């Protein structure tokens, strides 16, 4: 499994759920309970009741040609949200806004708009002014 920190039936991919047997062998008497938990998670997901943060949009920093298509973002994204087709593209439905691709990009071609360098430096200096 990709992460030890996800709940028993969820994975690091939105909309992908596991019944306990998908993780480890389950005694026959517990299989029904495991299936019920997975089904409840699917129903919650379909109702939009995901216990996840709101989607975060990635932005590309200027210049537009900064992306070297090195695949670092694709390799490091734990959510499978990055693809490269000439340059890096974000699968917005998969992106969880964790920022790993931003931190690992050697060309500094990506940024999270809510966490730009300027905003982070202002916050560190105690400036509450936005932008």
UniProtKB/TrEMBL annotation:
<dbReference type="Pfam" id="PF13237">
    <property type="entry name" value="Fer4_10"/>
</dbReference>
<keyword id="KW-0408">Iron</keyword>
<feature type="domain" description="4Fe-4S ferredoxin-type">
    <location>
        <begin position="86"/>
        <end position="115"/>
    </location>
</feature>
<dbReference type="InterPro" id="IPR017900">
    <property type="entry name" value="4Fe4S_Fe_S_CS"/>
</dbReference>
<dbReference type="GO" id="GO:0051536">
    <property type="term" value="F:iron-sulfur cluster binding"/>
</dbReference>
<dbReference type="GO" id="GO:0046872">
    <property type="term" value="F:metal ion binding"/>
</dbReference>
<feature type="domain" description="4Fe-4S ferredoxin-type">
    <location>
        <begin position="56"/>
        <end position="85"/>
    </location>
</feature>
<keyword id="KW-0479">Metal-binding</keyword>
<dbReference type="InterPro" id="IPR017896">
    <property type="entry name" value="4Fe4S_Fe-S-bd"/>
</dbReference>
<keyword id="KW-0411">Iron-sulfur</keyword>
<protein>
    <submittedName>
        <fullName>Heterodisulfide reductase, subunit A and related polyferredoxins</fullName>
    </submittedName>
</protein>
């Amino acid at each position: 499994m990709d992460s030890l920190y996800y709940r028993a039936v969820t994975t690091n991919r939105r909309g992908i759920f596991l019944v306990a047997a998908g993780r480890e062998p389950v005694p026959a008497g517990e299989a029904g309970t495991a299936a019920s938990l997975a089904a409840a998670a699917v129903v919650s997901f379909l109702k939009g009741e995901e216990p996840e943060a709101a989607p975060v949009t990635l932005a590309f920093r200027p210049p537009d040609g900064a992306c070297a298509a090195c695949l670092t973002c694709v390799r490091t994204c734990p959510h499978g949200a990055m693809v490269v087709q000439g340059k890096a593209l974000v699968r917005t439905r998969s992106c969880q806004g964790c920022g790993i691709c931003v931190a690992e990009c050697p060309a500094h071609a990506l940024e999270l708009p809510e966490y730009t360098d300027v905003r982070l430096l202002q916050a560190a200096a105690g400036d509450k002014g936005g932008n």
